Protein: tRNA-cytidine(32) 2-sulfurtransferase
Organism: Paracoccus broussonetiae subsp. drimophilus
Amino acid sequence: MRDELDAQEDTLEDIHPLFRGAPSSTEFRKLRKRLVRETRAAIETYDMVRPGDRWLVCLSGGKDSYTLLAVLHELKWRGLLPVELLACNLDQGQPGFPATVLPEFLTDRQVAHRIEYQDTYSIVKEKVPEGRTYCALCSRLRRGNLYRIAREEGCQAIVLGHHRDDILETFFMNLFHGGRLATMPPKLLNEEGDLNVLRPLAFIAEADCERFSRAMNYPVIPCDLCGSQEGLQRMQVKKLLDEWESRSPGRRQVMFRALMNVRPSHLPDPKLFDFTSLIPGMSDFKDKSPTDIPVLRER
């Protein structure tokens, strides 16, 4: 994969308009290549592509979604992503949201897009008690609208900009507050069974998204709804992970690798592993990998 991308970069003379004005520094070129390579690796690892599908690429206006949009279009530009891309921004009616920024940006950069207005902000403010966080209801309303839009547009997948750090933070939130080992999977089939939810940035560090969007000078729009709330569980977990990372650089990547190296036989969940079959004197399980040992599917 590395040789193929390097060869294409050497011969590709034109670029997608999303990369107009990109820095010419060696540091940025390495960052850009790393983002493309890691996104492609996630797409291949989780078998995200069905040639000819249409993807609804969700664009919030944050650094992560800009990175997602640019990298997917570069992959498609290089002929490495045989799907149709449609960018979508859901304007949720937050006061002060700069409604013209994304339409103007997407039009200027020649990106096919749909802008949808739905005032979920008023619903969230009305339904969520004072002092409680908005994230759960806001996310549920947003996801419902995105499912609807995807179906209206004939899309087979909703593509989100969650990165490696989001996945880790969700894992620890479930661990600390939910009492379960779970996180956001890179690929998920919705309950109705008609749409995939994809996270192609699953292998990418948040810091790289920050560096990329800043270097490209994309018009980042902050979230003033949940971003304005203090004491969010996710912010607390992020701070904890930052402290671990500062003391032991590379800790986040090690923890993420652990999520990809699960051993059901070494966890105390009887729904995932057939502990009743472990009988002294039986040699059937000796030297077998965890994937070879009988597993009970989750109910």
Observations:
- The radius of gyration is 21 Å.
- The chain has ten helices and six strands.
- Confidence is low (pLDDT under 50) at residues 227-231, 286-291, 293-299.
